[in-house]
Amino acid sequence: MTTITSPVPTTHTSNAQRRHRVLVTRAIPDAALRELEATFDVESNQDDVLWPVHELIARLQGKDGVMTNGSLRIDAALLEACPDLRICANMAVGYNNFDVEAMTAHGVQGTNTPDVLTETTADFGFALLLATARRVTESERYLREGRWKGWRHDMFCGPDVHGATLGIIGMGRIGQAIAQRAAHGFGMRVIYHNRSQLDAATEQRLKARWVDKNTLLREADHVMLVLPYSPAAHHTIGAAELVLMKSTATLVNLARGGIVDDAALAAALRERRIAAAGLDVFEGEPSVHPDLLTVPNAVLTPHIASASTATRLAMARLAARNLQSYLLEGKAITPVNKLANALASHRAAKA
Ligand code: 8YV
Fold first, then answer.
1. In the predicted model, what is the mean pLDDT of residues 79-101?
2. Rounded Cα gap, residues 344 and 351, in angstroms
3. pTM, rounded to two decimals
4. CATH entry, 118-300, from 3.40.50.1000, 3.40.190.80, 3.40.50.720, 3.90.180.10
5. Which of left, alpha, beta for 235 (phi over 0: left; psi -120 to 50: alpha)?
6. Does the Cβ of 93 fall within 6 Å of ligand 1?
7. Cα–chain-centroid distance for residue 267?
């Protein structure tokens, strides 16, 4: 059920006239919702109804802030239609759902949830890597289907993870947390590709070496994608890149749908041009390319890399704190855009 809590006067509001109004577009952990309700008049959606855009826009009228998730597009058209909006707090570290330029032009602050999900997401990177290389889900299906008749020396053999070469594309916080696990937990050789090279001390700590993308694809036994989505990152891995990979290699995509050309990947998997893939994100999700659903050598999960109970709560709390800090004190905790003059000119234009 959608609820609108009744207005309660608070000393927090700067003009002390009214409590700020906030829309939470999807269900969030109850504890985070209670924290928001202590400060704001909150319209929530704990039944997790997917609102069409016109309904979302209607609900945003009179709202100062909105908590979004990574699949809700915030663009110029929506901002035009919601002139009261001052902040969009994404409950996600990725914010490719934001048209940041349009938000800045409209004087709307954007925020995300970095750091709180780094370790949980890196854990999941390893879960997918191990499941993919060691054929965990494929062999489980075989067992459940009653096809297991006894031991064979080559049953579900796959490549080793320990001691292998891991190629990480995207060496931000999550990439570094994966490198840490790889080098220190699994004795892997880590090579990485990133726009900027890490400083020497960090490279040494992570035992990681920068290489160009093609070298990474040729040398890696396992390739892990953790770069943010941008138009420039679209199809970072397509047919041409898959050709460079070893036939025994695996590919893990933890990043965003669209970074991999899913059709090209499905063809490479079907033809065994690479050994296997582990995918948590998909082009056009929640739809999944039909060919990926039928190849046996793909481990497919529904965008759950950050889904530990504690981390999802931490993400919601950070998004809530961003709303509170910005609306009550004028300063976001983890901003993704700088408003500066844009905010002033927007306010002037509205006055
Ligand atoms: C989110 C994610 O669960 O943080 C991100 O960027 O991809 C996930 O942790 C997802 O975006 C839903 O908001």
1. 98
2. 11
3. 0.92
4. 3.40.50.720
5. left
6. yes
7. 25
